[in-house]
Amino acid sequence: MSTLRRVAGKLGGLLLTLFLASLLVFFSRFLVPGDPIRFLLRGRKPSPEAIADVTAQYGLNLPPWEQYVRWIAGVLHGDFGRSLQFRQDVTAVLGDRLPVTLMLVVMAGTIIAVVGLVGGTIAALNKGRASDRGILISLTVLGAIPSFVGSIVLIAIFSVQLGWFPSFGSGSGFWDMAYHLVLPSIALAIVFIVLVGKVTRSAMVEQLNREHVEVATSRGITRLAVVRRHVLRNALGPILTVSGVLVAGLIVASSIVEQAFGLSGIGSLLVGSVDRLDFPVVQAIVLLVVTAFVVVNAIIDILEPWIDPRSAAGVGAR
Amino acid sequence: MTRTRLSRVAAVGGALLIAATSLTACSGSAGGTSTGSAGADWKLTTTTAKPTGDIDSFSFALYAEPATLDYAYAFDYPDNQVLANVCESLLRLNPDYSLSPGLAKSFSNPDPLTWVYEIRDGVTFHDGTPLTAADAVASMQRIMDPSVGSAWFSVYQNVESITQTGPMEVTVKTKIPDSQFNQGMGGSAGVIESAATLAAKGKDYGNSTGGVNCTGPFSLTQWKSGESLSLERYDGYWDKDLRAKSAKMTFAIIPDATARVNAMKSGSVDGSWQIPMESAPQLQASGKGDVLYAPSSATSDLVISNVSGPLGDKRVRKALMMALDRPGILKGASQGIGEISDVLTTKLVWGTATDAAKKTAFDDITHYKQDVAAAKKLVEEAGATGKELVYVTAPIGNDFSVVSQATMAAAQSIGLKLTIKTVSPAQYTALFSDPSAREGVDLFYTVWYLSSPDALEMYGVLRTGDFSNYGGWSNAEFDKTVNEAVGTMDPAARSALTAKAQQIANEELPWLPLATGPLPLFLGKRITGLDPSMAFLYYPWAAQIGKR
After folding, report:
1. B66 to chain A: closest CA residue
2. For chain A, where are the alpha helices, taking DSSP H only?
3. CB pair distance less than 8 Å for A54 and B147
4. B467 lies within 8 A of chain A by CB
5. Which domain holds residue A47?
6. Is residue A53 in some structural domain?
7. pLDDT digits (tens, 9 = 90+) for A136-175
8. Would A144 be classed as within a structural domain?
9. Are A212 and A151 found together in one domain?
């Protein structure tokens, strides 16, 4: 079946992309100046035996390709090696921090989707009117606020002044964590809302001008039903594509927000690990982000025909 | 520890880098009691009011997560200030930087090559098991194990053997007489962990998975990676005087300086060591507690990393020293809080020295005054006018940029050409460990702290060929003096020799001392009791804290 073949093709492409990414992620560390062993021994006078011993413990005495084979074999078994800075399994280091980042990304993603879709839809339906311009301008202004500035402003107003939300930490337990992450997720979301909002607006405006919408309207179908069935659904394609791109952006941008709110997530871990030449952790995180990006986009590619059968038929936008 | 080099390197390497903002703060201070020469209003505080009673819990902010609580690796501000409350050493480094018996109830030095430690009876680890000499032997031998790669190896570099010579007695034999080994037993190098725990935890010992099982007034109950560490009073603690006055305490990890200051201003945390100097006024004004200045063992220095270049000529080093606007540096880098220093140590580490030695070390030295004209002449005499220097810095703290600009101005004013190379914090750290990173580099800035209560620790690292003698400076008389001091067991006699070494370093300027400053901390209004000191890295300070 062509669907099956298409899905298989996508999966093949996905695996190839991941393989190439793993090569890039692994070997790029050899371009970075600095000797991780020196860092591991923390810059003090080590005995030569200690250097040799520790080098062997971390497999750094092997040729690079052999290090890659060992690393990738480990990764396939869920073993990302040991962190140099924490002297702990990378999976444990990541496992402790992943929930915070995932929660943050999910909460920010929800805010972006809801505010972006609603804002974009309202703007599209009021195209050219004051509310359209108002929404466009406010989204653009919000989009121009860097996350770190947003974080500072939010903390100053809602934590320090009003005392409504904590200024740092991620709390314990699901609801407490959600509460702690309210401000961080807003800080993370505001930059991205404009993207989804604008794409929603323009995609819907385009659909609104189509003949089938005019036909539907002239047949006396309610405005709401027209928008829902004929406008929004047809506009979903570009919105989903943008959302796919956002996933990686959110994970990467979370580092800034995590730093500002003192959250222990993947983003702040990445920044700290790069600085300390903790390459096993850096490699694991980068691979994770790349994988998340590639997988999400593959899923969107695969789902698209079901949302919009025209794309499978190769008819394109028209 | 003949050459305790490590200490400061750590500071530099690890801490500084990461600490960025906080470090700015810690440009070290002499134990001096005067107010800053730049006129800022500050004074040293060495005690706070006794607590009125116990408290349920309090929290302190850390600027970074401890990399480890394994004493063999703990060599950074966050690691050591937590570890100090959980694990204890054979000797105890007190807030006044004196050494007193710790887990060893006594020690002796029957001959110059032998140190005998009598282990204290009735001490238990946090799991309830008793401390014995076997635990001490296992803990100490671990630092010498090459497969461990301990950061504190240099303390043990002259050690021949560590053996259990009785149920509660450990004997250490050294290859040469080494007065500094015992001085190091008050720090992480002297920490005693349960031998059974070391064996059971293996590679995960001391990380957030494995934890530690020591004898301190607090035990580690939870380590939430990247967020917080929770401690709980250990009821079986042996020392009644240092029984924890708080049932619990928490370290909150808040890397962002603004967030950290906000947490203190809003009362979410009760205190923090090494607060950013520039935040002191707003913290004091917040009404949530007090900003205090503790005596420090650190000085800020310019490390001369290449003696085959123009700075190999003593006259050029001296000229640069005379051209530097050090009062201006002090003002720009630490709000004028601190003092100019002409030597590489602070009075805090001269506790056991004789008055005569202190006079030699701090008064009978050259006090360098800014004199650009004379400096320029020295450069001309040396034939170095127009020569080029490379200065390496990194975006770490405000002090780094202030000092690099001041050095640039000084060099230009005396006819030297200085190029500033800005590298990443990681590359900057490499300067301290990797000789190839120092190639073509003439000088760089650092804040160097001492971990042992002996100024000799500083001068040990400047001997010919030492790992931390970054410039390869060599002076026969200096080496002879320092080596003699290392082999001198009597503190008074040793201090005289160390003072002589300090004089030579002051005259020869292997590194250029800039300033010393106090260690700033914030103590919230709910709590009191601690004795502020640089010894917070090794002394169980949190146990002192109770209700204000």
Report:
1. A86
2. 2-27, 36-40, 48-57, 64-76, 90-125, 130-143, 147-154, 174-180, 182-208, 211-218, 223-225, 233-260, 266-275, 279-307, 309-313
3. yes
4. yes
5. 2-76
6. yes
7. 888 888 888 888 888 888 887 887 778 787 777 777 778 8
8. yes
9. yes
